Amino acid sequence: MSEQKPISVWNYKPWWCQPWSILLTGVTLIGGSWILFRIFWLTSLVAIPVLAWMGFFLLIYPRLVASDDLFNK
């Protein structure tokens, strides 16, 4: 029998939803907030949801897709 390659969720995503674009967008939003306002608490308010979004789409979501049998049926 042949071995199956692990499924990569990134093969099914468009260019704007790839890891590099997610990281670039998150860093730009957080850095842009700091450059524009230079207020720590405001940048923190921007950073918390952005980091949660990045963490979900870069860490949690790919593992969920890889562990699920959606593509193996």
Could you describe the 3D structure shown?
The protein is an all-alpha fold and 73 residues long. It has a domain at 20-66. The protein is built from two helices and no strands. It has helices at 19-37, 40-67. Helix 1 packs antiparallel against helix 2 (40-67). It starts with 18 loop residues before the first helix and ends in a 6-residue tail after the last helix. The model has no long low-confidence stretch (mean pLDDT 90).
* H and E order: HH
Regions with little confidence, pLDDT below 50 for 5+ residues: none
Strand content: under 5%
Name the helicity range: 55-70%
Alpha-beta content class: mainly alpha
Number of helices: 2
Shape: elongated
Termini separation (Å)?
18 Å
How many β strands by DSSP?
Answer: 0
Mean pLDDT: 90
* Rg over alpha carbons: 16 Å
InterPro entries: DUF6737 (IPR046625)
Domain DUF6737: 8-63
Protein name: DUF6737 domain-containing protein
Keywords: Membrane, Transmembrane, Transmembrane helix
